[in-house]
Structures are given as structure tokens and as C-alpha cells.
Amino acid sequence: KLIASESAHKIFEVDEHIISTFAGIFSDARVLIDQAQILAQQNRVTYNSAIESISVIKMIADRMQMSTQYGGVRPYGVVIMLVGVNKGKGHLYTTDVTGNFTAYKANAIGENDEKIKEYLRRDYKESMNIDDGIKFALKIFKEILEKNFDIDRFEVAYVKSSDGKLVRLQDNDLKKYAK
After folding, report:
1. Which terminus of the chain is more solvent-facing, meaning fewer CB atoms within 10 Å of its CB: N or C?
2. Selection from 23, 17, 92, 88 nearest residue 54 by Cα
3. What pTM did the predictor assign?
4. pLDDT tens for residues 152-162?
């Protein structure tokens, strides 16, 4: 309750059209996401264009994989999920601690991820719009967390494929979806 909410984001803007989150050790995620932000900025300066999300996830996965090759180097203790929009199409990628990455239509990482994936496999529809997706996600958490569900613990971010811009929802903005 004493933490300032603006300092506790777990959804990061890599570039205006790419967002990322993680499960695992915060400092490991921060280092990798900082490197992804630098890569995205370098691409904008060098080529005057937005980087493709596949290039960002490949760099993150490569860094994670390199830490598994040498003695005396601790592997990154984090799983990264990255979402981006390129040419009007959304992309979702998830890494694992070994440096592999996979593209998904929908995915979950972190606490209760297997339970959430069961809901996704059963009820996810590609035709969902953003509002439907937010309601669907919060419904899953309500069912899994039951009496421990608290909308104030949630942060939602998305990038629309039409304009490729990050939108964040928290607190009162989310309450209308949690009915």
C-alpha cells in the first residue's frame, strides 16, 4: 500500500509500438528490456523507422542463451513476453530461460500460468476486440483468484494495430471491465 503505483509498472514500453512484461527476477528483466529499448532507439536513429518486434525478441533470446554457455555466468532468471505491431498486424512472443522464443496467438507467464492457459485454450477467440480481451482476461483472474481478486492489483496495456500506440489502463479505467 505504501508503494507509489507509477513506480511499480510491470509492463514496459520498448518502443511506441512494442510492449513487454516478464515473470521472474525483476532486475534481470530490467536489464534485458533496457537493452531492447536501446536496440529500438538505435534502429529509429539509423534507419528512421520502427524496429520489427521479431528483431527485438531475437536479441533478447540471444542474450539469454549466451548466458547459458559459459561457466561462472548465471542464466537470466526471467521469462519475457513481448507484444508488438508491425505493418498493422499484432505479434506476441515469449522467451524461456534457455533463450528459446515462440510466437503465440495468446499466452500466459508467471503465477497460475498453466491454469490461465487452460482457459485460453478453451475460450480464446481470435475475433475478440481489445475490450472483449480485457474483460476475458479479468474474468479468468476472477475465477482463479476468487476472493483474492482485487482490481487495484492489475495493470493493463495494449497496442492497437491501427495506430501502433501504447495505451495503459489502471485503477478506475479498469473497473468498468471487471463487472
Report:
1. N
2. 92
3. 0.92
4. 889 999 999 88
Handedness of CA 160, 141, 81, 31 (dihedral sign): positive
What the block records as the C-alpha cell of 114 is 498453466
User: Which residue has 495493470 as its cell numbers?
Assistant: 155
Place of cell 478506475: 172
**E strands within the chain?**
12-15, 18-24, 78-86, 89-95, 101-104, 155-159, 166-170
Task: Confirm if 53 and 83 have CB atoms less than 8 A apart.
Answer: yes
Dump pLDDT digits (tens) for 18-75.
999 999 999 999 999 999 999 999 999 999 999 999 999 999 999 999 999 988 889 9
Pairing of strands 101-104, 155-159: unpaired
Burial of 71 (0-12, 13-18, 19+ CB in 10 A): exposed
Given a contact cutoff of 8 angstroms between Cβ atoms, the answer to whether 28 and 176 are in contact is no
Which alpha helices (DSSP H) does the chain contain, by range? Answer: 26-47, 53-66, 113-123, 130-145, 172-175
Name the grid cell of 19: 510492449
